[in-house]
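Record type: monomer structure entry
Structure origin: computed from sequence
Chain ID: A
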Amino acid sequence: MNWSYQIGSIHRIPIRLHITFLIIVIFFIWLFADHTFKIFSMDFGFGEADVSIWLKYLFSSITSVLFFITLLFHELSHSIVAQSYGIKIKSITLFIIGGVAQMEDIPKEPRKEAMISAAGPAFSLGIGILAYAIYIIFYQVSEVTGTFGNAFFMSISIIAYYNIILGIFNLIPAFPMDGGRIFRAFLAMNMPYIDATKMAVAVGKSFAFIMGILGLFTFNLFLLLIAFFLYYGAAGEEEAVVISVTLEGVLVRDVMTGLPDVIYVPPDWTLDQLVDVMFKTKHMGYPVQQNHTSAVLGVITFSDLRRIPELERGISRVKDVMTGEVITIEPDAGAFDAFKLIMSNNVGRLIVIDHGKMVGIVSRTDLIRSIQFRGAYG
């Protein structure tokens, strides 16, 4: 099930909201409307404001939206710098503990990674310091009065404080925070990229462990959530880098099963005939073709087969059950590109097409075996 919903695009980058993002927005609206905090002589929240409850929630809603717009621009800053280096951004997604700019490729040049990673915290700190300066100069010095004047500067103080905290927090040298990526870039100047990643990931997991312990002892659910995010984000980053480095320079044609070894099934076969082939070949999916030289009509997998009751498999045809949407890749594409395509589409195999004709199949199993072999002997 897809929990993210696209709401538009900025600078040709799709912007998505994860359903969990609504939770944190509602929490912030309630927090600012129902409470007032004083930090560094600045007031945060409308809880003690001498206005009606609906005005408190109105001011709080506007402030929360403005803050999360600055969070969006934090991620957009990463994306704009990445695009300037020719790196494609698939999307920006906002969810419960922040945002993620999903890049098509992870830059392995230390300087580029450092610049891309630093762009977000630089924006947050810049907007936070600017908002704080506006608050100090125009509010505390001028002593603005009036309901809407006070509400405006209350919003400014909240945006200043939380952006400064966001900028500083993101500079913590822990994966997958921006500071962790900057730390890896610094390490990668003096050691192999994969070793730099493993060291940065170890630091990230240590931070996650410390935050988790603090969260348990203080009964702080948000700290536990951040610890969980840091730990599994760091582990995922390490895995992605190991795979990308291991498959570097490997082409799809190097790992695919080529013709005539590809096993296909005709569209008019019954599902009972398909079951027999599955038992003999031990494969979980097959291209559907009239013959090896004809066009690929679709793909049929064990998951497609399971949807049909056993008693109906003798009369059901492959063409009626197969998946008509075929995901393809070229033989000269990178093996890591094939891996990303398989994972993002949650499929078991890709049809390899060269000049409009199928020349082979590359499966998830093919890629994993290659990763294991090259990891052990490469």
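Annotation 1: The mean pLDDT is 86.
Annotation 2: The first strand starts at residue 4 and ends at 10.
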